[in-house]
Amino acid sequence: MVAFTTKYKPKCLADVVYPDTQTELDIMSYENAGRFNNIILYGTYGTGKTTIARLMPKAVVDDVDEDNEVDFINGSKVRGIQCIDDVEDFLHLTSWNKKGFKFVIIDEAEQLTKQAQFALKGVMDRFIDDAMFIFTTNHINDLYGGIQSRAEIYLLDPPPVERLVPLVKHVLKCEKLTMSDPQINQFTAKYGTSVRNLLMKLETLTINAKRKASQPPSTPNLSCNTTLNQPTPTSAAITSNPVSCNTTLNQPTPTSAATTSNPVSCNTTLNQSTPTSSKQAA
Ligand SMILES: Nc1ncnc2c1ncn2[C@@H]1O[C@H](COP(=O)(O)OP(=O)(O)OP(=O)(O)O)[C@@H](O)[C@H]1O
Ligand SMILES: [Mg+2]
Predict the structure, then answer these.
(1) Whole-angstrom Cα distance, residue 201 to residue 230?
(2) Of 139, 187, 207, 275, which has the fewest Cβ atoms less than 10 A away?
């Protein structure tokens, strides 16, 4: 099974969930070379910094040759001054995309040595017209001020719940799972500390729901409204044998005959201590 962080990875800048409208507009303004600045993407883990960095060259110039006109450097692996010499050699090569642009992505840039960061300053100046440097970091304070002053800086914080909910709904739909809106909000608030974390929790939820759905019905159990839409059975079959999930997403004890008929519990990692429905629902 493909990891959800890969399966639901943004394919273009517009797919990214941004922390706020201004950041979204700022990042999107680079599309089709609407802007051409060096940028620094910083912030907490799993909020899309590397994803945006990798998508940016194609967004800026759609015919970029990503193998030959984009230099991706993992700053925590390649740290010293030699790396800057290599960057310079790369930038001297000809670019064949329609704008003649080149892109240097330095991921985890604060991991470059001080000497390397310092040397980069001059290289950024020399190639200012046709090279875009894209830095990502979790620790902006460890990035040399000379680099910071040559780039637009964007903070990638975890997006608020309302911005994450469409992504959660999209995943649930693709995975044929259903959850009520209050459950989705609750789930997203709990696990949306980063988009990466949210996708991993959705993956766990999905795996557990599908595993339980493939097991024979057991004795009646606590249930919630996270149901797996089975692909083949008719809706009548689904309602007579719903898959339920006693997670924090639990709702008050359901009253519908369909849900109480023969639920299959789904002990995902989302399980909390035995829920007291009214408290959970509150
Ligand atoms: N803002 C986002 N919008 C959509 N998907 C996201 C977003 N942020 C992260 N993801 C998902 O999480 C995965 C990991 O994201 P990414 O590696 O870009 O995070 P990061 O900010 O670089 O994390 P780190 O600080 O740990 O390096 C992506 O492949 C994608 O599936
Ligand atoms: Mg990263």
Answers:
(1) 21
(2) 139
